[in-house]
Design a protein that fits this description.
heterodimer, A: 116 residues, mainly beta, 7-stranded mixed beta sheet, 4-stranded antiparallel beta sheet, 11 strands, 53% strand, B: 112 residues, 5-stranded antiparallel beta sheet, 5-stranded mixed beta sheet
């Protein structure tokens, strides 16, 4: 089954304790990205990656790091989490639709992170 | 900066009626527009997209329009069912871009 897998799905941690949220896709997509979703603000892009070793900042990159060493994996790293990073996080992979040129996203199930 | 507006108030309709959701955008000219469905606690799921040179697109009970003059897309669900209850997100996007930006979504409740 084509899918994007995120782990952990739920995590409660404390301020300053480094954590990594893993993301893996099995569709051979070139593009991957991370979003956070907060009530009233919708989905906001944190980082995206166009291919292996190629990443760029989205709209809210502060406090996050990413890496893309393999095509299928795109982990999100919080070096020193703070309470304002409490949120619902989504990883997505995407392909370029040949007919329209559109970037169509497939999302993971989400990771709910609470930072105390 | 690019701005996307979707009705933040929930839409409540009766089963069997047509639900119409609105997506307005400003400060840019998207080449295409996507609609996604999101159920509580789950990731968004792609529904359909419409290109700037298309006025209307249909897929089963779904219909999307794209008016580049009004800078607006309308998303219709005909013969709505309780199973259509979800949040619907629009994403007007530039061609070749990787920064897909989403509206905050409109929550739809279909009452049996």
């Amino acid at each position: 089954e084509a899918q994007v897998t995120q782990n952990p799905r739920y995590l409660i941690t404390v301020t300053g304790k480094k954590l990594t949220v893993t993301c893996s896709q099995n569709m051979n997509h070139e593009y991957m990205s991370w979003y956070r979703q907060d009530p009233g603000l919708g989905l906001r892009q944190i980082y995206y990656s166009m291919n292996v070793e190629v990443t760029d900042k989205g709209d809210v990159p502060e406090g996050y790091k990413v890496s893309r060493k393999e095509k299928r994996n795109f982990p999100l790293i919080l070096e020193s989490p703070s309470p304002n990073q409490t949120s619902l996080y989504f990883c997505a992979s995407s392909y370029r639709d040949r007919e329209s040129g559109a970037n169509v996203l497939t999302f993971g199930a989400g990771s709910r992170l609470t930072v105390l | 900066s690019q701005k996307i507006e979707q009705n933040s108030e929930a839409l409540n309709i009766q089963e069997g009626k047509t639900a119409t959701l609105t997506c307005n955008y400003t400060n840019y000219s998207p080449a295409y527009l996507q609609w996604y469905r999101q159920d509580p606690g789950r990731g968004p799921v792609f529904l359909l997209l419409i290109r700037e040179n298309e006025k209307e697109k249909r897929k089963e009970r779904l219909k999307v329009t794209f008016d580049t003059t009004l800078k607006q897309s309308l998303f219709h669900i005909t013969a709505s069912q309780p199973a259509d209850s979800a949040t619907y997100l629009c994403a007007p996007s530039l061609l070749g871009g990787f920064k897909t930006i989403f509206g905050a979504g409109t929550r739809l409740f279909v009452k049996a």
